[in-house]
């Protein structure tokens, strides 16, 4: 990893959880992100999980895999899973990975 990585969780109190990811998502941090998303998706009180990439500056294939892992676990537990605010090279990485159809990539937001 060449840059900082931070994650902040916000619970809206009504079953919605927003995971805000900042910095770079690469191989060095992808496992940690996967575990964070899995943990959030497995919480009984969660109905909708949003991963906000508005301040994410880089994502490689390992980062894409983390999002897909989080989505898979969320859907298995009956949760909605949304990736929001994918911009610039992060959006391009999601398109290049071929997950646009699966994640419904649309106007800076990814929804599943």
Describe the protein.
39% of the residues lie in helices and 35% in strands. By secondary structure, it is of the alpha/beta class. The protein has a 6-stranded mixed beta sheet. A hairpin with a 2-residue loop joins strand 5 (105-106) and strand 6 (109-111). Helix 1 (27-41) packs parallel to helix 2. It starts with a strand and ends with a strand. The mean pLDDT is 88. It holds the Pfam family STAS_2.
List its traits.
single chain, 112 residues, alpha/beta, Transcription Regulator spoIIAA, six-stranded mixed β-sheet, 4 helices, 6 strands, 39% helix, 35% strand, MlaB-like_STAS
What order do the helices and strands come in, and which of them pair?
Layout: E1 5-11, E2 16-25, H1 27-41, E3 48-59, H2 61-76, E4 80-84, H3 88-96, H4 100-103, E5 105-106, E6 109-111
Parallel strand pairs: 2-3, 3-4
Antiparallel strand pairs: 1-2, 4-6, 5-6
Helix pairs in contact: 1-2
Organism: Actinoplanes subglobosus
InterPro entries: MlaB-like_STAS, STAS_dom, STAS_dom_sf
Domain STAS: 14-112
């Amino acid at each position: 990893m060449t840059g900082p990585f931070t994650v902040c969780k916000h619970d809206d109190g009504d079953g919605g959880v927003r995971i805000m990811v900042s910095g770079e998502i690469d191989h060095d941090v992808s496992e940690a992100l996967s575990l964070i998303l899995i943990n959030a998706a497995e919480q009984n009180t969660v109905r909708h999980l949003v991963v906000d990439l508005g301040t994410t500056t880089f994502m490689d294939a390992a980062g894409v895999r983390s999002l897909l892992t989080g989505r898979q676990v969320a859907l298995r537990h009956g949760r909605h899973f949304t990736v929001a605010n994918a911009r610039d090279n992060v959006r391009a990485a999601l398109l290049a990975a071929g997950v646009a159809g699966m994640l419904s990539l649309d106007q800076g937001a990814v929804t599943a």
